[in-house]
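Assess this one:

_____
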Amino acid sequence: MDQAERLREIVKANNVPKMSARVITVTSGKGGVGKSSISLNLAIALTHEGYRVVIIDGDFGLANVEVMLGIHPTYNLSDLIYRNKSVSEIITKGPEGIGFISGGSGIQEMNELTKYQIMYMIQNLAELDELADIILIDTGAGISNSVLEFVAASTEVLLVTTPEPTSITDAYALLKTLNRKSDFDIKDITIRMISNRVSSEEEGSDLYRKLNTVVDRFLHLEMDYLGAVMQESNVSKAVMHQKPAIMLYPNIQFSKKIKTFAKILCEKDDIKGENRRGIAQLFSRLLLSKNKKN
């Protein structure tokens, strides 16, 4: 029995729950497109819709979300794996009741996990499925292995891009590389694009149509369109103040759009009950993917 087969047995034996949290992975083709800002503000907007929300900072080593919040978590995902900390201990409380989990270097260290550590991690992440209704994973930028593994293991992805040519080409490169992964199945995933920092709704729609046309023609993938977010100076000011824009400037267009996105996502919650893949199952798939390579 190889490592991947042993891991499947571990997952099966530990009864990963089927009634799970909704997991949405937020990603982009490159850095500097406002992905983490959208993740953070969307999390707060979803709490206003009555959901318990936790953000996992998957941008390992950079910790954008915690910088934006001005918080310093005591523990991170590595403490769950190696120091027997519980899920509740590694969750840092954020504004408006959101929870935050710092990734640390957890994903990079997963290749070295023992059978006991895998069992412990999956059992504890199953607890997170009960503590949260929605989990947002804010990935790193670009097409690193950790980003690709997160996206490939996900059922819902938000792809953030801007009108900059490099943002568009890098978003396409991300999807192209993802499409080549052996464990990626388009039938298992819904990709929704957000056009960020555009000058108008029309520019945002045009950006989506252009990218989606190329993605459909050459990769045979189809993306949904969540909407456009205008370029606004107050969003940058909120980052400088280490406060979410939706709280500091609730009436600007950015905040209103994020609230609209939250309502749309609540309406488009199509994966329910036993078909929903929660955070424990996502990490199980992540670990299976890693072990296949070893």
